[in-house]
Amino acid sequence: MAKPANGRTALVTGASRGIGRAIALGLAGDGFDIVLNDIERQRDELEAVAGEIARIGRRAIPLFADVGNRDQVRAMVATGLAQAGRIDVVVNNAGILIPNLVENLLEQEWDAVMDINAKGTFLVVQAVLPHMRERGYGRIVNIASIGGKHGAPEQAHYSASKAAVMGFTRVLAQEVGQFGITANCVCPGIIVTDMGRTNLSEQASIDKWVGITALRRLGQPEDVVGPACFLASDASAFVTGQSLNVCGGITLS
Ligand SMILES: NC(=O)c1ccc[n+]([C@@H]2O[C@H](COP(=O)([O-])OP(=O)(O)OC[C@H]3O[C@@H](n4cnc5c(N)ncnc54)[C@H](O)[C@@H]3O)[C@@H](O)[C@H]2O)c1
């Protein structure tokens, strides 16, 4: 078992709902104070999560920024560091999915998905790295997707963005390992969230996904928490550059 993380701080992006909210609460349960990020539109939801974390007895610092915007990311990380004093863990969870066939895909749709899912991960990591490097410690957990390994129709741009996150993470791990920093991906399968429901609009789709899942059920946000918390902890000190499927056995490796 990992030691409690009391005194440490984790930054979780896209934390107002779904998988990000669950991971933020899970990390708070492990003892982390949490810098919570989401976009301004999610203010009420993010502040509600901050309240839940405070009730666990941990500090929550909600900060609003679009992870695809470099200036906003820089300001968020600077404020988070000023208020929390340290960032030990980053969970790059913010993401979007805009289903469309390649043939119909708009340039703006491609750009939006790439900006948030792929560039957002890079921008947050780049903003936090000098601090982690100075302290000789860091855990970077990037939420990719099994969609980045295989993918499904209408999600080519999403798949490309998540494959980019995995490639980025593999090289990042090689660059920062010497500074005591690990970088890994978690690749969820079909998880019941606002985004996940995009894949589950009809009973036939639910049946299809459950049918190809070894554990014969859909995932819940809480299913992603244990693997993410492991990669955020000292228990994973010798694990880096990996992409861990958390999908109930849809993708096997
Ligand atoms: N749900 C699934 O089935 C599934 C599967 C594989 C991977 N994922 C990944 O897990 C992560 C979380 O997804 P989810 O299912 O909880 O989706 P969700 O839509 O419920 O949550 C995504 C969160 O990201 C936030 N966000 C969106 N754009 C942002 C931006 N520019 N800056 C900051 N925050 C932003 C949203 O406001 C929201 O709170 C995503 O990266 C997603 O790609 C989800």
From TrEMBL:
Cross-referenced InterPro entries: KR_dom, NAD(P)-bd_dom_sf, Sc_DH/Rdtase_CS, SDR, SDR_fam
Signal peptide per UniProt: none
Any single GO BP term: monocarboxylic acid metabolic process
Stored Pfam families: adh_short_C2 (PF13561)
Transmembrane regions listed in the UniProt entry: none
Organism domain of life: Bacteria
Coiled-coil segments: none
Domain Ketoreductase: 8-189
Entry-linked Gene3D superfamilies: NAD(P)-binding Rossmann-like Domain
Alphabetical list of PANTHER family matching this protein: 3-OXOACYL-(ACYL-CARRIER-PROTEIN) REDUCTASE, 3-OXOACYL-[ACYL-CARRIER-PROTEIN] REDUCTASE FABG
Sequence similarity: Belongs to the short-chain dehydrogenases/reductases (SDR) family.
Protein name (record): SDR family oxidoreductase
Organism: Lichenicola cladoniae
